């Protein structure tokens, strides 16, 4: 049993650690407008209503009136996990490809004289889906172990998932995951003097993460049809405070700073489907839920860290300006715990366990430009480096938060009828990382062979925005 639990703890680690597939830190994302996709240095921007999220103190520097902005992103994520070992018995390459067609954001800013009131409906985390058509190395092994120990269905009859005489830990599991953190941001900004403006706001976040596991050769499905063996969802509500300062020491230089507080996130698990047997070994809980730690009604805490955004814009000529952007994430103020495999009665006493993460400070740094090369037509571009700083031991086929470069460009049309239009494109260049995470059991109980595992990714984004000033 102890040997099996070591394998199954992998399942808990995999299930609990899946995260958004696009840019930025753990659960949070920075891509929240078409303007950022076209130039990822928006933290000192005052030229568009997306400053509601990037530089809220800059909202009071816009023209008087009601400004409304809508953006949408279509994100194409591509992840690969490769086991770099000739002796590994399973499939050696696992790929994901599932575009997120609609990632919208809506910002509104009402500016009058020395003050502004703003709001935003946007996705601050997640924003993407992931589909592993053939499962993943450790997850496949874990599901096989559940099968060999307990089987499926209320009768407890064991189904043959793999050929036990030649186990391959093969590709008969599919994993479909979605992570979304929609948020409502509201606040106000005030002009202190000709040089300085300040802002104060708040944010409500509704976190939602889902996972669905399907298998084919468990005896539950027929032919190539996959049967759902686990379907779960966990949700949480969080709150943030946001303060900002914008300083313009010269007519051609703008500086900004925005701080977002940590958001406490208390999650609750809702298991919609679990076809594994309910066993006394886990206090009557379903085996798959217990061995992942994600039992129905389970609660845990995994916060969103505080974030500091810094920015500078310098107008070189009336037609050309450059920008610098910096972000720092502070996980040390939060709590980061998620369920992992429960301890069964046969090992002493039934106990639900947690895995604790000790994340390090992460940061982003970018440089970009805005060039009006024709009347009312702007070309933007920029490069942003994301230093995730995630420890090697935390990397897995699902938690593949690896460092990357964001490279974006776009075209913006500013009409004389208060209408702004933009289209933009970004490519993410991820830096391949590796560790020895993939386990394979040996003939000796409790002893495993660890195989080198390589994680690589790339992503493409197409985005557009429409912005209009009323009144």
Supply database-style keywords.
mainly beta, 471 residues, 20 strands, single chain, Porin, elongated
What's a concise summary of this model?
The chain is mainly beta.
The total strand number stands at 20
CATH superfamily descriptor: Outer membrane protein transport protein (OMPP1/FadL/TodX)
- If you compute it from the alpha carbons, what radius of gyration comes out, rounded to the nearest whole angstrom? 24 Å
Q: Mind telling me which CATH architecture this is?
A: Beta Barrel
Q: Classify the beta-strand content into a percent band.
A: over 45%
Individual helix count: 5
Structural class: mainly beta
Overall tally of domains: 1
Q: What order do the strands of the largest sheet run in, or round the barrel if closed?
A: 1-3-4-5-6-7-8-11-12-15-16-17-18-20
Describe the 3D structure.
There is one protein chain. The strands form 2 sheets. Strands 1-3-4-5-6-7-8-11-12-15-16-17-18-20 form a 14-stranded antiparallel beta barrel. A two-stranded antiparallel ribbon has the order 13-14. It has 5 helices and 20 strands. The longest helix has 16 residues, at 2-17. Helix 1 packs across helix 4. With 471 residues, the protein is mostly beta strands. The protein has one domain: Porin, CATH 2.40.160.
């Amino acid at each position: 049993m102890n040997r099996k639990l070591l394998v199954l703890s992998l399942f808990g680690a995999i299930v609990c650690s899946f995260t958004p597939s696009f840019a930025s830190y753990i659960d949070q994302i920075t891509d929240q407008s078409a303007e950022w996709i076209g130039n990822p240095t928006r933290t000192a921007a005052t030229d568009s209503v997306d400053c509601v999220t990037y530089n809220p103190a800059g909202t009071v520097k816009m023209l008087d009136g009601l400004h409304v902005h809508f953006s949408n992103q279509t994100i194409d994520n591509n992840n690969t996990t490769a086991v770099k070992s000739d002796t590994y018995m399973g499939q050696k390459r696992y790929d994901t490809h599932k575009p997120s067609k609609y990632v919208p954001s809506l910002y509104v800013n009402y500016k009058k004289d020395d003050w502004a009131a703003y709001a935003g409906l946007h996705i601050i985390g997640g924003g993407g889906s992931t589909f592993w058509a053939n499962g993943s190395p450790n997850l496949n092994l874990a599901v096989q172990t559940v099968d060999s120990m307990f089987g499926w269905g209320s009768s407890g009859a064991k189904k043959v998932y793999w050929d036990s005489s030649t186990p391959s830990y093969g590709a008969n599991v599919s994993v479909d995951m979605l992570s979304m953190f929609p948020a409502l941001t509201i606040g106000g900004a005030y002009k202190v003097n000709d040089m300085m403006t300040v802002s104060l706001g708040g944010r409500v976040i509704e976190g939602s993460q889902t996972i669905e596991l399907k298998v084919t050769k468990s005896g539950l499905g027929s032919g190539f049809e996959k049967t759902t063996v686990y379907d779960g969802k966990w949700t949480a509500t969080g709150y943030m405070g946001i303060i900002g300062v914008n300083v313009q020491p010269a007519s051609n230089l703008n500086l900004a700073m925005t701080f977002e507080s940590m958001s406490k996130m208390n999650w609750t698990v809702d298991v919609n489907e679990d076809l594994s047997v309910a066993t006394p070994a886990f206090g009557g809980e379903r085996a798959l839920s217990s061995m992942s730690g994600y039992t129905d009604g389970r609660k845990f805490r995994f916060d969103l860290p505080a974030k500091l955004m810094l920015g500078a814009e310098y107008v070189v000529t009336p037609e050309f300006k450059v920008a610098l952007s910096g972000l720092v994430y502070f996980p040390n103020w939060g709590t980061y715990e998620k369920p992992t495999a429960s301890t069964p009665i046969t090992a002493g006493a039934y106990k639900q366990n947690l895995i604790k993460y000790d994340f390090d400070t992460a940061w982003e740094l970018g440089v970009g430009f805005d060039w009006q090369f024709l009347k009312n037509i702007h070309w933007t571009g920029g490069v942003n480096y994301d230093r995730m700083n995630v420890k090697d031991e935390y990397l897995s086929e699902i938690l593949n938060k690896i460092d990357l470069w964001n490279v974006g460009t776009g075209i913006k049309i500013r009409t004389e009828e208060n209408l702004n239009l933009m289209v933009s494109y970004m490519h993410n260049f991820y830096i391949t990382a590796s560790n020895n995470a993939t386990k394979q059991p040996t003939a000796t109980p409790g002893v495993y062979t660890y195989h080198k595992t390589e994680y690589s990714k790339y992503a493409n984004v197409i985005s557009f925005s429409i912005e209009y000033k009323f009144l």
